[in-house]
Amino acid sequence: MRAVDPRLLRHARAARGHLAVAILLGLTATGLILAQAALLARALSAAALGTGARALAGTLALLLGVVLARAAAAYGGEAAALRAAARVKSQLRRKLIGHSLRLGPAWLERQQPGRIAALATRGLDGLDPYFARYLPQLVLAVLVPAAVVVTVTATDWISGLVIAVTLPLIPLLAAMVGRHTRAQTRRQWQLLAQLSGHFLDVVQGLPTLKAFRRAKAQEQVIANVTGRHRAAAMATLRVAFLSALVLELSAALATALVAVETGLRLLYGHMSYQAALLVLLLTPEAYLPLRNVAAQYHASAEGSAAAESVFQILETPLPSQAGRTAKTAARPPAPVPDLRSAAISLSRVTVVYPDRDRAALAELSLTIDPGELTLLTGPSGAGKTTLLRLLLKQIEPSAGTVRAGEADLAHIAPASWRAQIAWVPQHPRLFPGTVAGNIALGQPGASRAAIEDAARLAGAAAFIQALPCGYDTQLGEGAARLSAGQRQQLALARAFLRDAPLLLLDEPTAHLAPTAAAAIRDVIAGPMAGRTIILASHQYAGISDTTRVIALAGGRPAKGASRLAEMPALVAAR
Question: 342, 418, 526, 528: least buried by Cβ within 10 Å?
């Protein structure tokens, strides 16, 4: 972790006004420190020489005003810095969530949701000490010692020389300790992110763990991770406390050295009383900002470590940008063809996932005509879901091209492309809200009649009407009160509601009873006819014999495309 992360300063542009105020107040505080020491030295010297109370009253009044002004400058500087921190945190949170969503499901499923949640909440909250205390102290650590050295040197060059020689010891010791602190803080934050992610996964899967009697084992895993995090946190605190001791001791020794040489020269009459008082009052002020900046470095270390993780995510290239040349990346988005009349063609498409050696799709070439019903079948891992993800622009091909009409899919904006697609994944996601709201998720503003028609087509109308409030029934997180089949039917209703020319279905009947699955197949072959439908499924019985079948094996067609009547021969051939 660097003393000042330039990436954080770049993101602080939205808060540069507040930071400018904080720096200006820091400059003001520097001048007030010098004025306070000078007035206090004059007052003490005048009192020692027996000056009258009337003459002393003016100096004390000025001193009181300077003390109050210094307190106000410190308060105002911290308040302005906190406002800057709030704006930077808000900006980073929006960028983090927005970029994570643009990276797409293929990237998100490799991450721990709890880790990203911890970064966006607890992690970025740790930037408050960085902006409110560390950065202002860093400014004061540069300004105050320089101003003190100049002032003391002008008063007594010997004391100024002693301070100038001993000052570098503080940042040198702080840098040596800081290198160790950086490693400890990074390890502490990684363990916290791991704990947050694992704990969220365990809570989400708690019903499954209880069903298989594995809850106790996960308790032990969480206890082990918690123990490692506790040990890392205590190690970080131990380093912080020891560094504070080292810095305080070195500052005290340097101050004592100035006090001894000043006292001796005052004793022998080589220095005036007021000059000696000014030197002794300003000497601790020269070392104080350096000690404070070292202490605030430790306080802000967690936020800075979390910010590094945020920047790693923000610097992850988007799938549509990875592997593209500068010329291609600079090209404006291509117009989106109408999928009601445009064919989709794949030419020697290969997809290789980053964490796998074998290609999920290998030089796959095929054409899907508009209005065609296509069945993708094959064993698990054959590439069915990968092909659907490719058509959703969730992933980009490693080689080859995908075209819609004459347009290259790589040059079409993802949002515009997906506006013509309805998709039902293998494990659909339902959100807290009403049943009607979940169905209308892909078609905001849909009428209640349209929602009910879509639910009827998906075979969900009967169980929805049996719910306590029907379509207005509130669903909890993940709709846990519904069965897997009911959740699947709501996802199908959501897809049917969208007037999308391309319908992608990934195992749409996997969790349904045979009668419900047969009804869905009838809807696909009946009311949905005319749309381009691509259906990935292990089951093919009951689909219309006009269906085009593409049997995949190892990312390639097992025997090209065929009609459903030839399907048993394809299976036997495999």
Answer: 526
pLDDT digits 0-9 by tens, 110-163: 776 667 877 788 778 888 888 777 877 777 788 888 888 888 888 888 888 888
Residue 166 has pLDDT above 60, yes or no: yes
* CB contact at 8 A, 76 and 25: yes
Looking at the structure, tell me whether residues 129 and 260 fall in a common domain.
Answer: yes
pLDDT at 55 (0 to 100): 67
Handedness of CA 244, 245, 247, 253 (dihedral sign): positive
C-alpha 124/C-alpha 111 separation (Å) is 18
d(CA 523, CA 373): 12
Burial class (CB in 10 A: 0-12, 13-18, 19+), 135: buried
State residue 442's pLDDT score.
78
pLDDT of 567 above 80: no
Of 499, 516, 505, 512, the closest CA to residue 547 belongs to 505
Instruction: Give Cα 496 to chain centroid, integer Å.
Output: 34
Q: Which domain holds residue 219?
A: 8-314
Query: What is the pTM (predicted TM-score) of this model?
Result: 0.61
Total domains in the chain come to 2
The length of the chain in residues reads: 574
Is-contact 149 286, C-beta < 8 A?
yes
Neighbouring residues of 105: CB distance < 8 A, sequence distance ≥ 6: 389, 394
Counting residues of the chain whose pLDDT is more than 70, the rounded percentage is 82
Q: What is the residue whose two structure tokens read 């947050």?
A: 196
Please tell me whether residues 409 and 547 are part of one structural domain: yes
Residue 320 has pLDDT above 80, yes or no: no
User: What's the pLDDT at 183?
Assistant: 64
**Residues paired with 350 in a beta bridge:** 399
Residues 108 and 227 in one domain: yes
Domain containing 183 — which CATH number?
1.20.1560.10
Check whether 574 has a pLDDT greater than 50.
no
Return d(Cα 152, Cα 149) in angstroms, integer: 5
What φ, ψ does residue 364 adopt, rounded to 5°?
A: -85, 130
Q: Which of the listed residues 274, 294, 314 is the one where a domain comes to its end? A: 314
Contact present, 136 and 297 (Cβ < 8 Å): no
User: What residues pair up with 534 in beta bridges, in sequence order?
Assistant: 374, 504
Of the three residues 266, 299, 314, the one that is the final residue of a domain is 314
Letter string b/e over residues 379-417, b meaning 16 or more CB atoms within 10 A of that residue's CB: eeebbbbbbbbbbbbbbbbbebebbbeebebbebebeeb
Pair 436, 467: CB distance under 8 Å: no
Report yes or no: 119 and 309 within 8 Å, Cβ to Cβ.
yes
